[in-house]
Amino acid sequence: MAGQPDLRRVDLVAMLAQLTDRSTNQPERIGSMELAWLVHLVEQRYDRQLDLTDDQLAEIRTVDDALVVFETALAAAADG
Amino acid sequence: MNGNPSSRDSNATDPDWVDGFLFTGKPADVCLRLPDPVDRGTLHRLVTEAQTRLSAAGLRRGGAVALRLPPSLAYVVNLLATWRSGAQAILLDHRLTDHEADRALRRLTPQVVVAPVRTGGAALRVFVDVTEGFTPYGDHPATSDHAVIQLSSGSTGPSKIIGRTAADLIAEVRRYTQLDGVPLPGERLILLPSMVHVLGLVGGLLYGLHAGVELVPPQRLSGAAVLDAIGAAGSPATVLGVPFHIGLLAATQPDRPLPMFRRMITGGELVSAATARSFTDRFGVPLGNMYGMTEVGVIGTDLYGEHRPRIVPAPGVDVREVAGELRVSCPASPYLGHTDPSRWSAGWLHTRDAGTVDPDSGLVTIRGRLDSQVSVGGMKVDLTEVENTVAELPGVAAAVVVWDDGITAYVQTVGTLAEETLDQQLAERLAGYKRPRTLRLLDQLPRTTTGKLVRSVDMLRTAGTS
Hints:
The complex is a heterodimer. By secondary structure, chain A is an all-alpha fold. Helix content of chain A is 61%, strand content 0%. Chain A has helices spanning 9-20, 32-46, 54-58, 63-79.
């Protein structure tokens, strides 16, 4: 992620707001559609494909869960 | 319906319609690109082999097979093999929980259940690599002569289990062939909706096989992958999806011209004029709209986006308005068992969609639901089903589930029920797309002076934040 800001929770919340057209009160829980949307935008922002498995995605229930998984995947991509 | 299937088509136990109607092209014609091409000859061979495995697992002609598979080649093969065996296919969305699937299996008594024993591939795959297993379930014949059984959310009662005959499916495919704006033989359909549900099943798989249209699921669920699929060949490409997929595409900048991109068609729910405009501005192709229901398939279309938000009834489909509700011609009840006369009566399906039919043009305007059904990414969810499930959980005294920019549950608890516990219990009982995005646990739900639960979103919000 050299030269790019770290991914923060507030970034994910802003991305979800684009999907729902709702700027505040984003629900903490996210479903598969929101998750696909977040992956799409995170990949665009960092211009790389996240190397994720279905098992990893299945563990994601909340925005905080998603942040942890994305940070791990981005770090792995940077190391790789 | 209003097509002209031969008399044998109406018999679900007669397997001839698979070869006679779906496998009509040349064996070398490619029907699927995953992305490796699968031609009709190969697909036919795989189907024949699957018939042997289904038979070995206990399937007999006139029986039923429950397919609990994600969108995959295994799903396509076993669906066609079931029909070609003269059996009924029960389609269970792979996202259903064991609790939901077991309830359906007990009611529908398949002879065999087909489910993954291994899935592979990266995340967000539109088509999944599946190795399937065959489990004998029972020895009862199918509960009806329908070729396919689908569950609609809210299926706690018999009227929400939907059956369609082979003749009905054939008639719907023929409706597609009469529409101006669908992909033509030799063209490609970039397929995003699940083939377990009516749009992807009939508008995608069955129409594609019958018409000789290549079905191309993108490599994964992302805007870039959809654009890659479009640009992977020079033949004209139509994208079939739901409104969520428009957002994915609109958020992606194409890195090359896509002159083969012909059109995007979405079903599931209405698209706003602003969304449609931003899509057509970006890609320079029409954004078409379809209106349909699991019970009857496609009802009307606006494939050039020229009547938005109105649609033109599909050929052979009659739509009328009765007391503000749209009703659609449907000669036989699509429901298994007892039919609720408020859902179907005298050859008409009561859609529970509010709407109007212009007496001069015949154009239909849909104005939203008259009941508690909502759309989550194109998937229909009945809030009553969610509410009943929440209310039946231990530690819950009462629950109200509403749509507030997402499924939101207000729960009156008994004792010390933790939100995490409630969430975990719901995860065991409801498929992910049906689960509340927001849970609000309250000591007391707001009630009217007569003790009824209040359903006003504003009042619930106030109670939830006080």
